[in-house]
Amino acid sequence: MKKSQLNSPVFFFVLILSFSVSWAAISSILDVTPGPEDFLSCIRSYSNNLTSISEHIFTSGNASFLPTWQVHVQNTKFLKPSTPKPSVIVTPVDETLVQTSLHCAKKHGYELRMRSGGHDYEGLSYTADVPFVMLDFTKMRSIEVDVANSTAWVQAGAALGAVYYAISQKTDTLYFPAGVCPTVGVGGYMGGGGYGNLLRKYGSAADNVIDVRFMDVNGNILNRKTMGEDFFWAIRGGGVSSFGIVLAWKLRLVPVPEKVTVFILNKTLEQGATELFHKYQTVIPAIDRNLHMRTQVFGEYIGNTTKKTVRIMFEGIYQGSINTLLPLLNKKFPELGVTGEICEEVRSIQSTLVFWGLPSSAPIETLLNRSAIAKLNDKTKSDYVRTPIPINGLRKIWRKLMENDESGQLMINPFGGRMADFSETEIPYPHRAGVLLQILKTVNFQDQTSDTTPTSLKRIAWLQSLDELMTPYVSKNPREAYVNYNDLDLGVGSANYKEASVWGERYWKRDNFKKLIRIKAKVDPLNFFRRPQSIPVFSTHLSDI
After folding, report:
1. Which UniProt keywords apply (predicted)?
2. Peptide bond into 478 cis (omega under 30)
């Protein structure tokens, strides 16, 4: 980032953070709950700019508090009065206020939550059952694209759509290998790994992070060199909020052609969808790395009848022309029936629109408008497939989908390609060689007043039963799960390694999880940065486990 960001009084705050008495320790003894006025007084004592404080810090008595909290709650099931909200919301515009907020939260016994885009599936970036301060980074969203060096510095509050847009304003031959949802904030996204339509060509988003500006628990602002390689390893896929505060990532941009080819093709059971998907599982993970083909699977009624079927949407993106794609598919997967008539050559930025369900002709500025992008209202679970699901297994899954009331679906991304080149310990994200598919299972509550209505609860029970049904067909020992699709149903215990391993090994596998715990003990030994399913700190040394 620009050198001007280095001019904040870092040393002053580091000194304060290092030697301040922990109010959390005192309050736990005295059973005192911190009040927002303590935090505000602390902030005021380090700032003479009261106008700035009023513009960027909000408590529940402020008219802007609730709208500021609500605007980036991307899973709308949390938009209800019973959801625990922050004691204080801070919307920093510079690193100094981040440092001051960290200091004051520690001093007065608050936990800290960091929100970049608000896509935390369990709402952990903006809700908690303890007094907490929420740092909302959406005002720190600058993006600096360096075409000559194929890099970009991106602040934590920037959303993926804005990153893609900024790149497209400079060049059509570079892009970044991340997801297709435009409103996802980069701060937390890279910290969980991150995947998208270029994963088979270039790996995960975190594989393409090359530097960072990062604030540790003592308020030090670090980069890759000053934090060291182990620390840098941990924050790229290990759940970055367990270790500190991301201020900005430096990204490696990857080459793409000026035009890519996209297509969408739907097949139902009556059109041979089962056999096509069975072949898809083995062909697409092994095919040319320039091709990515996502599938979405729905149970739905046939027209206006009472009969149900399963529809599979095959969504392809090829890093090349139609004339090159068609011979490839005709050779490797002719049964799918992709023709030139359903293919379209577009810019990479337009392909993001298409994969978000918009026409390629939609204004690319749509990606900048967070309020124009539909929010979620759902419950999700994730899985990885390492052995092709047999035909009889697929039919069981299809029958389960047809039991649903059309609120459920599967979203499936093929792996292989570049993802298989990395060791599962290259970064904490471990889902590498041998993974054929990643599966996201979801039910939505869009037509319900909450996620606790009888209908919503029935849908959640259905999702759990689907999860159980799929057990024989997904990865084992551990049954892998994706940390960016966090799922508190997996467990939250963290009193000892045995408890934490129930969920931790599913996200990171044993070796990576143990390494993350060792790094956490070094960089945040008092476990200030904590929340459900964060990397734990144990009193027992890990080598004794």
Report:
1. FAD, Flavoprotein, Glycoprotein, Signal
2. yes
Q: How many CB atoms lie within 10 A of CB 345?
A: 19
Residue 435: phi, psi to the nearest 5? Answer: -75, 125
Residue 367 φ then ψ, to 5°:
-65, -15
The two tokens of residue 128 are 């908690």
Q: How do residues 327-372 score in pLDDT, each as one tens digit?
A: 999 999 999 999 999 999 999 999 999 999 999 999 999 999 998 8
Q: How far is CA 124 from each of CA 258, 288, 346, 512, rounded to the nearest angstrom?
A: 39, 38, 37, 22
**Catalytic residue IDs:** 485
Pairing of the two strands 151-155 and 143-146: antiparallel
Q: What is the pLDDT, as a whole number, of residue 47?
A: 78
SS3 458: helix
Q: 3-state class of 213 per DSSP?
A: strand
Question: In whole angstroms, what is the distance from residue 223 CA to residue 212 CA?
Answer: 5
Of 71, 205, 93, nearest to 142 (Cα)? 93
| Chain-centroid distance, C-alpha 498 | 26
Dist CA 143 CA 220 (whole Å): 23
Q: What is the DSSP letter of 508?
A: H
Query: From CA 8, how far away is CA 5, in angstroms rounded?
Result: 7
d(CA 433, CA 187): 27
For residue 498, with 0-12 CB atoms within 10 Å meaning exposed, 13-18 middle and 19 or more buried, which class applies?
Answer: exposed
Instruction: Copy the structure tokens of residue 514.
Output: 């143990």
Which amino acid is it at 425?
T
Strands of 35-179, DSSP E: 57-59, 88-90, 111-115, 132-136, 143-146, 151-155, 174-175
Q: What is the pLDDT of residues 121-137, one digit of tens each?
A: 999 999 999 999 999 99
Higher local confidence (pLDDT), 34 or 455: 455
Q: Are 77 and 450 in contact (CB under 8 A)?
A: yes
Listed residue (31, 138, 144) closest to 74, CA to CA? 138
Indicate the pTM of the whole model: 0.93
What's residue 493's pLDDT?
97
Nearest 5°: the CA angle 80, 82, 87 is: 100
The alpha-carbon radius of gyration of the chain (Å, integer) is 23
- Please check whether residue 238 is in contact with residue 191, taking contact to mean a CB–CB distance below 8 angstroms: yes
Q: Read off the pLDDT of residues 156-193 as tens digits, 9 standing for 90 and up.
A: 999 999 999 999 999 999 999 999 999 999 999 999 99
